[in-house]
Amino acid sequence: MNPKLKDLVIVESPAKAKTINRYLGSSYTVKASMGHVRDLPAAKLGVDVDDDFKPHYVVISGKRKVVKDLKDAASKAGDIYLAPDMDREGEAIAWHLANLIDKDKSRIKRVIFNEITERAIKEAFRSPTEIDMRKVDAQQARRVLDRLVGYKVSPLLWKVVHRRTSAGRVQSVAVRLICEREDEISKFVPTEYWTIDAEFTTPRGDVIKAALEKIGKAKAALGTAKEAADARDDIKSQSFSVLAVDQKEKRRNPRPPYITSTLQQDGARRIGLSARKTMAVAQALYEGIDLGDQGPVGLITYMRTDSIRVASDACDEARALIRSAYGDGYLPGTATKFRKPKSSQDAHEAIRPTDVSRTPDSVAPFLTKDQARLYRLVWERFLASQMAPAIYDATTVEIQGGRYIFKASGSVMKFDGFLKVYGEKPEDEEEKGIPRVEVGEPMGLAKIDANRHETEPPPRYTESSLIKELEDKGIGRPSTYATILSTIVERKYVEKIKGNALICTELGRTVLTILLRLFPDIFEVGFTARLEGQLDKIESGQDEWVKVIHDFYEPFRKDLENADKMRKELKGAVEEQVDEKCESCGRPMVKKWGRHGRFLACSGYPECKTTKPLEAEQVHVDARCPACGGEMVVRTGRYGKFLACKNYPACKGTQSVTLGVKCPECGEELLERRTKRGRIFFGCQGYPNCKFATWNRPAAQACPQCGYPVMVIKASSEKGNRLECPKCKSGAESQA
């Protein structure tokens, strides 16, 4: 190392660079690559299938200046330390950086750390390593596989459906799970069944509620109202006594610290964050938060992990805090260690606070609302994982009358243990005591009810339950779940409905039907899971990445050849003929897919280009065409909704759709618009002279605090819709 030159450190993000620079001091220059710097080209395949699938990488558009700055810094540096994240993707970024900034790579060193703290950073720099090419190869294999599928299959979808459709190797399997669950629900036929509940009185006057458990030696199974009524009437004639009493101590053990999937599940279930939002907030907590006098500090360990392992010093710190804050009674005799799941790669630790003494309350003033809530989840889950079990006194009583046996169960908490910190009870757990009774004591039948029930279909997936399903089936990896979910929603293959349930859209079902018909193996759940296992073998050195791609590509190539022959057949299958004639040429109209959904088009295309919205989608409004005076309907175009003459194409009169809300800046009407990527926003009709715009739907209500003439509707999963002033940010109860 040249002592006159500063060493260069390259990380992924500016936030991380700022935190690390503070720990390393003035002898290092820390710069950020801003994520990936090289990738396969966007406009072409970029994979040479005839040369062992050699990828052709290019500098990402918009990153040339970043790369130039890094090269300039490297030319003036001593050693070069590459410090992207420690997963496959981070290793690939390090490899790309090494290839771009130092041809002989003699100065390149790789540093890896699980947490951005002074201790961890300095330890990593004392023991630098080399780039792990097995991780790089595993990431290259994933990237090449996804590129082959996306760039070879998507053009087929363009020709059959429309150009905005695309095929993703893993995302399509997620869509399949959602669609198949919807099919299960639609085909489900509820089955009637009955239960019998009773209230018994003890000799001391106490009441015990119990449910019919057995009739004779068989489990009670009452399928009709008559069966239930007959059993109820027979029960009334019986004399009852206590058959058995079982009292025991029951322990409930804490859960392990979070891994990526469980953090995303609880992020959705407990604080209402999407998987993408959860990971973005966790990334910020990992990279570093400015804690005032302490400067930027990484608050949690690396958040992309499938390991529940925890460093021994972190366990010791947690145990010390538990002893001082809650007492020895809350501390197990030894540190708790959890059994490693079979599917875990165990590459690095579970998600935990970097310093457990930084309590949620102590750091909350420096965090956003979402950061504070997520940090509290991580902190509480980790601390609770090292605490003693909760202890309950559980009692089960069986009451018999003739051939009928009723059962009552209850439990009372004797010691709260880890629930002192991580106080969440299962939905089906109700704490209740059972009055004292003795075997053989007579019991009086005070009340009896027969209740009708129906079996229920399986629930729709939510983000939380879909992530769990993907994890259980071995589909994707911790770093991919958030992207999978956001992608299938953005592509409009899946949409969220009330309660955050995920349902398959008509477009999603159409695309999936085509994919499964053309490529039944690739988009099969088991195949996708096995492929993930092969990527793991590449990383562990058990397999070669080129061989894995070869084994995949040969059957895939044959499927592509067959698919190309079926294009016309498939196009006909998705174009549904309707009982309507073209207004221009008289030929039949057909339903087609376009970028904004289904529409009617003349079957004589391209000779006749007449199109119109589906009648069900033509929203009629109280407006007249400015050109011919005809009726207007709402249509959707490239930039959102607009009013069009119903007499189109004979008349092409149009008008903008207004919200009935005046622009607070100029008094013109506000409109609903779309960005080029399809995201809805609201802007002024007077654009470009007036540039007022907002992502939130405006409401014609003045701010009660500052008098601003418009407020916007802010959605909240916890409190529902509310109004907020875009100027002073004060809130009000929603009238929307």
**For the record, what CATH class of the largest domain applies?**
Mainly Alpha
Distance between the termini: 66 Å
CATH architecture of the largest domain: Orthogonal Bundle
CATH topology of the largest domain: Topoisomerase I, domain 2
Full CATH superfamily name of the largest domain: Topoisomerase I, domain 2
Number of helices: 18
Oligomeric category: single chain
Alpha-carbon Rg, integer: 32 Å
β-strand amount: 15-25%
Low-confidence spans? 616-620
Shape: globular
Report the mean per-residue pLDDT as an integer: 87
Largest sheet: 6 strands, antiparallel, barrel
Instruction: Order the strands across the largest sheet as they lie in space.
Output: 9-10-16-15-12-17
Structural class: alpha+beta
Helix percent band: 25-40%
Number of domains: 6
> What is the total tally of β strands?
35
Question: How would you describe this structure to a colleague?
Answer:
33% of the residues lie in helices and 25% in strands. The protein is an alpha+beta fold and 736 residues long. The chain has 6 domains: 7-131, Rossmann fold (3-Layer(aba) Sandwich), CATH 3.40.50; 141-187 and 459-568, Topoisomerase I, domain 2 (Orthogonal Bundle); 192-253 and 390-454, Topoisomerase I, domain 3 (Distorted Sandwich); 265-385, Topoisomerase I, domain 4, CATH 1.10.290; 576-658, no CATH class; 659-733, no CATH class. A 6-stranded antiparallel β-barrel has the order 9-10-16-15-12-17. Strands 2-1-7-8 form a 4-stranded parallel sheet, sandwiched between helices. The protein has a 4-stranded antiparallel sheet with strand order 20-21-22-23.
